[in-house]
Records
---
Amino acid sequence: MSMRFPTATWPQTRKVLSRHLREVPKATQQFLFAIVLLALGAVANIWIPIQLGHIVDVVISASSTSLLRITAELVIAAFAAAAFSAWGFFVLSRLTERVIANLREDMVGTALGLPVHRVEDAGSGDLVSRSTDDVAELSAAVTETVPILANSGFAIITTAIALVTLDWQFLLVIVAAAPIYVIAARRYLRVAPGRYAAERASMADRARRVLEAIRGRATVRAFGMEKSMHDRIHTASWDVVEHGYSARKTMFVLQLWMTSVEFVMLGAGLLVGYLTVQSGAMTVGAVTGAMLMLIRLRGPLMGLMRVLDTIQSGYASLARIAGVVVNPPQPTKPAGAPPKEGHVEVHDVSFSYGQGWAVEDVSLSIDPGKTVAVVGASGAGKTTVAALLAGLRVPDSGTVKVDGVEVTSLSDSERVARLAMVSQEVHVFSGTLREDLSLAQPEATDDEMIAVLDRVNADWFHQLADGLDTVVGAQGLQLEPVAAQQLALARVMLLNPRVVVMDEATAEAGSQGAQSLQDAAEELAKDRAALVVAHRLDQASRADEILVMDNGRVVERGTHAQLLEFDGRYQQLWTAWQRGRQ
């Protein structure tokens, strides 16, 4: 059953943000400086409608006051508003982007430091969604909303102060509009966070379903589960649609409330303006300036309303990101394992992904220098056995021990020193060949790196003009599948574990270089305890023991010769294999 990472509460999210703000040098000073700049920009912006009102008074009274002077003040106010606002946005945006970058690094670093089985239990789709979709959503939310939020907030505050400064009676506008705004905001905030969080969670569930279908396509096809998986993805996708519609409906209702606020605000402003002009408390120009301020509030209010949608979505993403780092499961502490030797014991292990047993009552033992091969049809449970031995999964019952210690109880350093897994899907990291190899053993010398490349028959290496300085990966030389697999095997040799798990690590042996790749795998298995999920039965035939699996159970075991004499499932597989080769 998938155990997702939690979603942080508001106090937890605030705690994480505060911690990351403290990590940015002079963050408090930068924030206060940005606030001052934005406030100055808002004040300069308010000066524009006031000056426009003065123009009205000048025209009405036919005063000799120079329109040129008022025009100059308007231009100065406009430039000052733009300059201060832009400067403040820059400082604030730079600060928030640094915090997001630190938060992203913290989340990824936390995930990388967790026990591998904890990440697997949470579901790769959940973590991928948080590290990609949620980070992108949060970054977009900050980029889009920080300028609008700051501008709208200061515009509303400075307008309110300016109106009250002109005449205290404009308090009636605030008194009339504020209750409606508060009611609308409370109604929105009462339902919106849950709906947006549900939308983000449904997106994560959809990503998990799609990844499961893609990565488990062999099992899906073997068990004829195509329709079932399609239905699950359809259900997950439709959940995203329904939750998205629910979130958008909340925004539509808020917009109706905000339209009501605008109507009441302008109506109250006209009434107060009429009364003050009649009483002689204000001139027509001053009232004109006040009404221009209120009309100009429509932009900030609508802008604030529009970004609330993005803010809620961004907060939902932020809470999911913070959920990984706020109170993460602690990395496994050292188990006090004895010196590494490579003794493997799997006893009566059963494991389920939630629907029936993937493996049931599986037992095996491997001594140092011995190789056990696991064979069977797709979906028989071979890869699950490999994942259990590698510590990627925790058995529901039974034990998996290396050197007498439960694999999932080993700390990262203890596990890496004893155990390594090579699968069919290998990754070539971007960088030089030396950097790629040194990931396994940072202290390895060039001679040691070249030696392991020779041991895995990587003859292509000697044809590289730049040798270990050759850039490989996405930004460099694109290695052929066989070469990439040889590189992965070479990394494991540098790591020098006592136990290796090879999950169809020679599946590319059907292409050119088949024998060299198979020989490299056998070289890696020498003097180590090796579990091999065999794609090719000729590879399994050379193992010290062969386990034949069917429907999650071990149905036969023995050497190649013994199993052929038994004339059972293995003999059928071998016959079909030989016929296929012919």
Note: The first strand starts at residue 344 and ends at 352.
---
Amino acid sequence: MLILGFYGGPSTEFEAGSPTQTHDGAAVLLKDGEVIAAIEEERLNRIKHSYTAPLRAARFVMDQAGVGLDQIDRIAIPYMSGSAERLLRRMYLADPSAEHALDVADALRAQWRRYLGADVPREKVRFVPHHIAHATATFEMSGFERALVMTIDGQGDTEAGLTLKGSAEGLELLHRVPIPESLGHFYMQAIGFLGYRMFDEYKVMGLAPYGDPERFRAQFEAMYELLPDGQWRLHPHLLDGMYAQLMPRRKREPIEQIHKDFAASLQQTLETVVFHALRHYRASTGLRDLCLGGGVAHNCTMNGNILRSGLFDNVFVHPAAHDGGNALGAALSVHRSEARHRPQRLRNVYWGSPLGESDSVETRLRAWSDFLDIAPSANVEEDAAELIADGKVIGWVQGRSEFGPRALGNRSILADPRPAEFKGLINKMIKTRESFRPFAPAVLEEQAADYFELPAGATRFPFMTFVLNVQPDKRELLGAVTHVDGTARVQTVSREDSPRFWRVIDAFHRRTGVPVVLNTSFNNNIEPIVDSLEDAVECFLTTGLQALVVGDFVLTKKDGAPRSALVPQLPNHVRLHERRQRDDDGEVRDTFELRRAEWNGEACKPLPAPIFGLLKRIGDAPIEQLAREAGLALDEVMPTMEELWAERCLVMRPQAAQR
């Protein structure tokens, strides 16, 4: 049986209209319960946390299996139809002149008919409650026979979480968390005081170890009540009282100790409430294994503390615990209901875009030969390890991309884990993000216990879902990946599941005596993780990365290559906008903007009139030709074009790559 999991918003980036509250759209294809392919829409349309319908993703996963939509047996949607229909009605009220189907199944079928070319019979469509999809994704792939299952997020459908028993018979509901008690909403509301917003929660998790939770303990303790039977009540309105002590930080203002202390108190509050619930259900059910799902389950500091507490023998957190993973959870839920067969324990998530065969990779790289030195490698793992041991920070692209928010050795930036100064260096020159943000160590599975404190009997932590303590005698050695509190978000690397990545780390170990490398996602802070070869090359050329290893090729940058020979293109989610407005002096002026679609609206970037005019002319011509035709000097044009490229407002490719 072929089951397509399909999660995303009602519109595409080609259609007018505002983004909705959906985010992290994705598609997954199961064949007889096993994953054939899975990818988030953001990897393909390059809109971070993409709110759009996952049409590219759906087409990709079906292409991987060589099937069309008409051959799919079931399409699983990870929300209830009533929730979606309320959204459709709100959209209709906002714009009654547009064409709207108020029945969600009909709306989806019309979209698939238009963009995927098949008329799907209504009986093939299955709706799965949002949190059941979260719970199914984590329990079905945990390998546990029986487990306590807890999902925690902002909200989905009409609840903010579930607690369930998982067994061979399925999932048995124990408790629903009502939306007013949403820990996800509370956490997101609180981080506004730190100048952060939705999808910045992980930054606050990284900031918390720098702070003292005692400073705001009393204030946060007033914001929750721990009730009998593992339940709780939140009082988020009391956050208003924080204004007397902490005015919200504006974006780009310095982070001070008071902000760190606030983050520490918030993290402690989250864990206090979650542990209260876990202790109750551990005692009342007798279950010794735990599965976590939902966006809050990406709080790997919390996960590590649960693991170390000894409350449970085993803890499994799905590596795609967020909403993108619900495409998988919905598909697994439908499979379970019809086939009664459970998949094997999850071992890896290399389910995305394949890099391609070596000949194809070389052909595509040669299009960039004016900008790159391209060296075939007879032993690419040894060459990559040599670069890392020499202090180089490299991009590493191999095989199929990972499903979920973590780069796990196929779309990664790799570096030496020892020099503490690498944290600031990489944050500044490549990731362009806050200096306090930690990096993760990837360690050979066989030697993980020598460098990190692992629970008794545990050897595998392949998904960066837990923060573990670094062994005290290794903390100074692993300066680039040890956080301020002596912890690290560990990834163990298996020779069986990630053979090429394992060989890189092994080669680095033989050179340095350290079986660990620094591993972070291959992207800057504006874009999703790179997916294609071309994504990787563009990120390489617009950051401070010192080498790029793609398949069996080692790439370095050519000095002085004429970037004016590149052909600029506007991505599908970027548009030019011209308007006339009256300024403060009362004069009417024309303004020129570039607008980029984001998950919560559009980001606007003002443009000088000459650059705006040049961009209106783009087609198949290189920048130098466009500038000449517009009567502009290259030194007038190139700084802005380079900036727009670095910010992914433009795609720039060689003419050979366009062909």
Note: The longest strand covers residues 588-598.
---
Amino acid sequence: MRTKLHLAIVAFFAFLTASNAQVSEKEAEARLWIKANEKELQINPEDSFSLRFVRKTQAGETLRFQQLKNGVPVFDSEILVHFSPYGEITSTASTYKPTIANINTTPSISKENAIAISNQALEVTGDITFQESKLVFYDKLGGTKLVYRVVTDSFSKTGSWETIVDALTGEVLSTKDIAYYYNKHKHGKEESNPPVAMAPFALVSGTGMVFNPDPLSQAGVAYGAAGYTDGNDAATTQMNNARTSVILPEIDLTAGVYKLKSSYAEIKELGSPAKGLFTQATSAFNFTRSEDGFEAVTAFYHIDKSMRYINETLGIPCVPYQGANGGLVFFDAHGANSADNSFYSNGQLQFGEGGVDDAEDADVILHELGHGLHDWITGGGLSQVNGLSEGSGDYWAVSYSRSLNQWTSDTPQYNWVFGWDGHNPFWNGRTTDYGASYSGGLVGQIHTDGQIWGTVLMKIWDGIGREKTDKAFLNGLDLTTSNTNQQNAAIAVRTAAMDMNYPCADVALMTEKFSEAGYTMPAISLRMNPIPNQTVQAGVSNTYTLPSYAELANPITDNCDAGLTQSPVVGTVLAPGTYSITMVATSGSTVSRTFTLTVLPFLDINENVRNNFIMYPNPASNQITVKGEFDANESVTIYNVLGQAVMNKAITSNEENIDVSNLASGVYNVTFNTAKVTRKFIKE
């Protein structure tokens, strides 16, 4: 069969050209840092750097500079400079290669020639689902060579194949599978079938039946209980009852046909066997596990849900950078040549069918997605040193499954990874209760060693909770490179937490757990992040009593023992106006932060409106409803107990719902700015 390159790949090359033009206001300052440290970095004067990747999150902004020699990129070589949200450089890393020789940079063959040579070497016979060819300096085969690095994903050949082609001679120097597998064993037959073309967006909601996260956890039973074995995909009564009915927030509807495609994920035919895309005429994707569509909707649900959680709940921008994907995660619930394995490569996920079908276990789905998150956050700088990415994938899977509270901490399943796909006659699975420590417990096998990383992250998770750990973990990966080991990843995660101003107690717990696991954590020099300006409202006496801003200041040291003073002092009575508040922390050294406090005048209460005003429920979990006779230009401001404004909302009717689901638990004041009405409510 003639090799066919999909049109979407053409868009990928266009994206590559556009993505080279990265922009950051911090670029000049970052380049100054590189210049100031060029001796330590051993930078050769003839080398230059291009800004290849920029990410900005709650933890700050990370810039990655690609090493160039005579304008040609050096493969797997970059300098990373990270700025906190307050503009300070808090983390740097380098994979710069000073030993790259200054050789001829004029290729004798084109990148198209290199692709043809690669396809012949790989014996690619099916449709190509991803392909790129880049001219780079390469030093992983001994000495410096000018090569084309060709990466190919093909429907007919399991994995993601890297071919290194000598750009001067056309010789194939190496070929290898560079996909990221959740299990070290790879096997399965090869077949060839064509993929199906992409459909345009037209998104509606739907429903589906899925395992969440797996049938054993849902039922609270062990593998082998009556009706709870793989049984060649048998839809036993027990298996049917273990399914969960879920909402699919977005699915594609085009010309009356529903498809598993959303703003974050899309089903594709990426590898054999070809079982279709399970499009249908109804929005209810309700299958039993004996039907192939069941694995498809289960994979779609968990990928889409996880990506929504990251981007919308956690507020961390993270989507595939691969241009052909258009920001979507491509997945094939029946791929990998039906092997008892699954893998991630180039923005794509393929799930095998040997043993328990992999896409029936959310742990497998989210582990492979974890590789993708690692890849996208680092702009292609995913590290497998010490099994870092394997442990990261294990963490991402268990962070979700443990959040469902289906197993208690005294059960072994509480710590299991792949509780349905593994820990059974097919294979042993893995755990986040691994006994080895870093670095003495390393055995040189990435899936085994990754358990050290996954285990310590879950111990932190137990201490500070899911969302905080997930945020620190993902934003910590942003500070890593392709050669980051577990030791430096631990430092990166803690740095991200401090940059996000986590309470000192949380940072101390991280230090404790990382240290107990064998990582060497540098001492923390006293730091206190800048404090944002505050606006509050005077009380009925038209004065405001100054509270303690110790929690807001949050000085961080190893033992959280910094002394802290506040000026003016707590209890000072202030009239409406603008004031400077200074917080001074002392622990060996001294750090001072000053912010502006604006005290607004008290708003008199309109008796008529007050007497006809209703707000409910109280306490509230997700929303409050207000009723009253409001002016057309009414708005509300919600203040916390420190007098800080945490929400503003326009009121457009005499009965309005206000979403308070994102507020932390506590007591709040709701002030209606025109009606001059204030009410308290409790957020549960």
Note: The longest strand covers residues 72-83.
---
Amino acid sequence: MTGLTAELVVDGRAPQTPALAPNGRLLCYVLAPASRTGDHLDTELWLADTERAVAPRRVTADISTESRPRWSADSGAVFFLSDRTDRGTPQVHRLALADGTVSSVTSWRAGVIDHLPLADPSLVALLAQDEPTEEDTRRAQDRDDAIVVGEREPHARLRLLHLRTGLVTTPAVFGDRHVVELRQRPDGGPLAVLTQAGSDNDYGPRTGRLHLFDPSTGATVELGPAGAGARSLAWWPGEDGWHLGYLALTPPLLQAGTAVFDLAVDSRVLRNRTSGIPMCPTELHQTDAAPLIVFADGLNTTLARLDPTGPTTLSRHRGRLDDLTTTPTGEKIAVLTGTRYEPANVHAGPPAGPLRRITNTRPELNGIALGTQQPLAYRAADGLDLDGLLVLPVGKAASDGPFPLVTIVHGGPYDRYADRFQLFWFPSAQWLATAGYAVFLPNPRGGQGHGHQFAVSVAGRVGQEEWTDILTGIDLLVGEGVADPDRLGIAGGSHGGFLSAWAVGQTDRFRAALVLAGVIDWGMLAATGEHGQFEAALGGSTGWSGVGPHPHDAVSPISFAGRIQTPVLILHGAEDTNVPLGQSVYLHRALRHFGVEHEFVIYPREGHSIRERRHQLDLLRRTRTWFDRWLGP
């Protein structure tokens, strides 16, 4: 058996965004490194045969960032984005399968955000911002670049690329709204277009509207508002005409489970098609007939078809299914999925299964010694059914305990731990299991996989029942002799970082904590984070909710900083706009004020996720060193 190193974790490559050809035989995907070594993330385009057992092959050779492969209707070409000509400015390129040539088909100076080949083989729909004007260029040269909020804000607009001439036209539609997503009707009819009032993540997702656009005539039809956070547009035919569906948050709260919404286009009747289902839809995919739905189902995943009577289960899968792609008939699918001990790869087959693995992008992990992973099922203090995962130290059984236990809380909170391979650049179970730790991965309420009510229960109540859900799981493992009660640690990133910071302000049971980009003050996050209104729904109030104390003060870790005695490792990206660096600065200053042992690490140039190779290596090594220091025998 080979030992696991930090280099093995961060130097791997993973497949992304698989795209099945309409004929179902070929599949295109992006191969991306887990970390970045330069200014750009260099990715590659690969082709695989889903019917023959032949190795996938790379079909692009340039050093560039390549993404978003989309097939032509005749399966003869792949359109994709690449910045090979001007790094950082993606353009649409076309790979002709007949001779393997790659050609650039746009030179839009602002770059292209997304693209969709249409049923008309001479047209490709584009999403792109306006090209810079001479005035923009002059102002940039003169450094006359004061930003006036609300003025000259960038918006993605719908544009049409005419392949025969190379001309890009911009229909005068949707005013100054920001275009988010496009989907053409399966019969080659109009485009469904999702727009928002603006592109910022705080305001935009609450202002969605649906439209129809006919690319042949330029005619538009207004369909009305869409739910908060709408995405995954999909058409299907019904007895009463065409239906247009999408995923969105379940109203009225912004912190809520997602649902599949079904709009009957002719009558404008809108229905929630997944109401009351104890699962959470994560993807909705168009076919020529009924669409397919991917459901987060506890620790696992269910694939279903949306029939007139509701979702019909087609297959169930351990762990996760991500980035589903399907042929127009829906008879073949491809997804990213893996196992408890293998990372995600592209798998293909019929929706009812079985799925055959097409790629093997991490052979270097073969033979690595890993900890045994097992699902947990238990009940909260109030009787609610909960689940999670336990990963044991490498080479150990539960009966060999008790072990030092690190609890790693997931982010979101609308996320989940699935029964999949748990090895990532951030603090993860297998990374700590190789160092002798047992690791608990809880799925407290507020997360994904158990329906809307489970998810919405933390709105305005963060750190309450979700925290006791986690404690209940820890107590279970202590009681079973798996966890050493004198060697407990806790870690998490983002919302998991909040719960880690919250934990050490509520109890001194933990010997060490790690807070990665954690929420320390909900009022400050609602004011400065890029998802402000979403955070306000979680924290329960904002700073402008009148004279305090406010509800968010009672659920903010900073309010309990004077109680903290546990040593804390704080990690944060300097350019994080989701949870700004000021959150960790606030915790650092409080711990310094109260004389609490801690370490504060800032990663330059990094956002909410840490991407640079050296930073990922530092984070992994520092994580182990920290817990070894405080939890080691």
Note: The radius of gyration is 25 Å.
